[in-house]
User: Fold this.
Amino acid sequence: MCSRAFTEIYSISPSMFWCLMITYIWKTILPATSLYISNRLLFCIELRILGETAGVDAVKELYWAIIAQVACSLIDSLMDWVSEHILIIYGARIKYHFEERILEANLKRDLPTSQDHGAEMEPDPDSVFNSLQKTVALAQEVVSFVLKLRVVQQVLRSGLANGGPIFVALSMLPLVLYNAMSSELGSKAYFAHAVDPHYLRKSALYRLAKDTFKQEVMGGNIADYVLHEYQKARSALKNVSDEYPSKLYSHRDAPFSQMILQVCGELPMLYFAFLAIFKPAELSLVQLAVLEQTASSLRYTFSVITWKFGTWPGDLSDMKRVYGMLDLQNQMKDGYHPYPPANCHPKGMELDIHNVCFNYPGSKTKRNALTNISLSIKPGQLVVIVGANGSGKSTIIKLLNRSYAPASGDISVDGQSIEAYQVQDLRQATANLTQDHQLFPLSIAENIGLGHPAMIRDPKKISEAANLAGAHVLIQNLENGYDTVLQPFSHCHTSFNARGHDTIFAEFLKVDKNAEVSGVLVLRIRSRGNLSSRTFMRLFSDNIRLVTVDEPSSALDPQGELELFERLRGAREGKTMIFVTHRFGHLTKYADLIVCMKEGKIAETGTHEELMAKRGEYIKLYNVQAQAFQPDPSL
Ligand SMILES: Nc1ncnc2c1ncn2[C@@H]1O[C@H](COP(=O)(O)OP(=O)(O)OP(=O)(O)O)[C@@H](O)[C@H]1O
Assistant:
């Protein structure tokens, strides 16, 4: 997986990749090089002070060490600048690259797969690069540790550091012991949850003073009860601590391990003190400084490695999430055949639903959403599906537009199984108007034009579609007309301190507010048919052979719905039309076929007259509606 990420990131910009690698290599060798140079510097200073040249040109070495030290510092700051500069540009390019890949994958993903994988569908586009950087950082520390060991070896071999091996070994001992005896949670994978019933009750009661519940608590005059119950729960909790899990985990009942570790930490200095007592001639302060410097540098790298190694699986998991999401296969297989077939009927789509059963993925209900549905719809028919809430009307539409696939049975379209066709082609031949239609955070013109993207740059067609949907006048009266952006995203940002700065914060609120389109306006646009404008726009496409309208009444008043149905019927030529609606009175008289649903099954089918004569399920629904419009005789 790491090599896949490397290859992908490399392909975004090979030149920037190599520049970044050079800075990483530099950062890897720098600590060992600095350690070596500063050790040399200290030794040369000592030789110079004591006047012991012993064949070494101390002054010349001192100059070289000074030049090398300064050069390292300069190169290091240059490398810092280069890597920061590259990361700003390259980092953004990498992020946008993965953002695009995630967007593309999400757009191609079918509904059941998206619903089954929920949160996995939105991984952080930054995480591949972040994970890779953390992997590189771990590798850097390991290599740096090995290089530092080489420097230690050299120091010990030089004979200038008497007692060095024991000193270095003693310096590393506490770290090794610490890792062996460690009881830290920090680098472990864990999750924690509270189980104590008194603690859970105390926390729940504490929340009752918050805004969400306040009105209810005050209105119900239950404040005393809440406080009393809180006190009861608190005293039942006794000494149970709610300290962070990591602290509770690392706390030891006896102090011995801590004491041993503490004493071990002092051992190197104690050892040197004993040497000073018993072999003072073999020691110097510079030796002590060099050894301490070397050992502390090794200790630091060792502890960074152990920490990074512990957190590495977690770092990689973010990268895994991105690739897991990108590699996810759609549950619904795409077909091979183009749609429409050459011999299709000019009047519209022919549909044959045969013995279809279906339930939603993850549904916990015993009853299927649809059970044994069989239905034939002839080309160009106007079909109305009626039935109580939850009887399965919308689900039929969702199977027809291939949002889901039946669990069993088959749907055939123009004589061929629906699954044999390419989904994209089928969708191009279908116009859906549903209760779930959303306004996109784009301009009104785009919101409408996206019904038929080929005409999205045609303002005449867009206003014609809005006119047909009855939304044109409202849109035209807006300050920015069709260019009004609906529900724009705000990209404002304040620093933490700006919150204490009245002028800046007021300005921030103003800018942030400007980005909002009022919710009232959005509602008006919805109710005045901006959503159906998109469907009318879609109807301008010559490809449409099936129109499904699923209860747009939640956004429309009865008059608006009646007008909408009238206009949709006006565009009926060459299209099969299926309407799902509760207010079906004004539609059923035009219906070639009425399908009456009950509890996921088809209760009866026929024309209005046939179903009225049957005196079954349909007439019950019809009478309930009719009664709502008749005067109450008791009044
Ligand atoms: N996304 C979903 N996940 C799980 N169950 C669902 C989902 N959508 C609908 N259902 C269930 O499937 C059954 C049929 O729902 P459907 O929406 O098709 O009924 P409907 O007749 O269109 O109802 P309404 O008139 O209220 O829209 C219901 O029991 C409903 O609760």
Observations:
- The CA atoms of residues 214 and 557 lie 36 Å apart.
